[in-house]
């Protein structure tokens, strides 16, 4: 049985969503603020997906998502918000959201997104099998043989990680891949990684084994072969 945490301070919507999701066979934990979620995440059975409203009174959902993604990288995150600008969408991806939905949301769509994310999360992973980065074809090949086409920036980013196996590549080095470095480069690196993670998930349903070392940089935690 899959457990979903619904973090929403609007009581009517939270209870309606809870009732609907339970009818679809999901187990739902309700929370109105981050402290309740944090406590539940230390308990069993584990939460697999968190549905998180961006506006939780004085709490900022983007900050909660960033902490959640860092401390519980195996938990899927769906962000709900009344904000639907491109900048908000990019901030959501940067914070670690797997899916970003604008309110009002049809509960049938929310349930479908949760089920799709659960399927991705339940896909067996092979962390010790080798990924291959082909710098001639600009492709990343998964251990299962799926090919992910890369942009020049994505290729440069993964090449840096491949050349430093198991060791975080510093943000100061990562920002050099951008043609127009600026004060916002660390944020851009985070957006780049989250877009790449989303691309890999969309194409083959696998999680890209890249880990964030807070205030340091990024490392590839699997085996990545350069070709």
TrEMBL record:
GO terms for biological process: regulation of DNA-templated transcription. The modification 4-aspartylphosphate is found at residue 53. Keywords: DNA-binding, Phosphoprotein, Transcription, Transcription regulation, Two-component regulatory system. One of its GO terms (cellular component) is cytosol. It holds the Pfam family Response_reg. InterPro entries: CheY-like_superfamily, OmpR/PhoB-type_DNA-bd, Sig_transdc_resp-reg_C-effctor, Sig_transdc_resp-reg_receiver, WalR-like, WH-like_DNA-bd_sf. One of its GO terms (molecular function) is transcription cis-regulatory region binding. Residues 3-118 form the Response regulatory domain. It comes from the Bacteria. This is Two component transcriptional regulator, winged helix family. It comes from Magnetococcus marinus (strain ATCC BAA-1437 / JCM 17883 / MC-1).
């Amino acid at each position: 049985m899959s457990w979903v945490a619904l973090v929403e301070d609007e009581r009517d919507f939270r209870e309606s969503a809870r009732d609907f999701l339970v009818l679809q066979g999901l187990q739902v934990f309700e929370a109105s603020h981050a402290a309740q979620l944090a406590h539940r995440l230390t308990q069993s059975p584990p939460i697999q997906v968190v549905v998180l409203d961006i506006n939780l009174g004085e709490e900022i959902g983007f900050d909660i998502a960033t902490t959640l993604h860092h401390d519980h990288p195996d938990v899927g995150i769906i962000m709900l918000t009344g904000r639907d600008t491109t900048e908000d969408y990019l901030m959501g991806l940067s914070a670690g959201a797997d899916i970003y939905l604008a309110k009002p949301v049809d509960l049938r769509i929310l349930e479908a997104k949760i089920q799709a994310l659960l399927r991705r999360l339940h896909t067996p992973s092979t962390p010790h099998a080798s990924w291959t980065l082909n710098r001639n074809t600009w492709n990343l090949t998964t251990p299962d043989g799926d090919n992910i086409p890369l942009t020049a920036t994505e290729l440069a980013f993964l090449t840096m990680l491949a050349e430093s196996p198991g060791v975080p590549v510093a943000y100061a080095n990562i920002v050099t891949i951008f043609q127009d470095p600026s004060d916002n480069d660390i944020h851009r690196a985070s957006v780049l990684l989250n877009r790449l993670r989303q691309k890999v998930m969309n194409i083959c349903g696998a999680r890209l084994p890249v880990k964030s070392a807070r205030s340091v940089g990024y490392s590839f935690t699997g085996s990545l072969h350069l070709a």
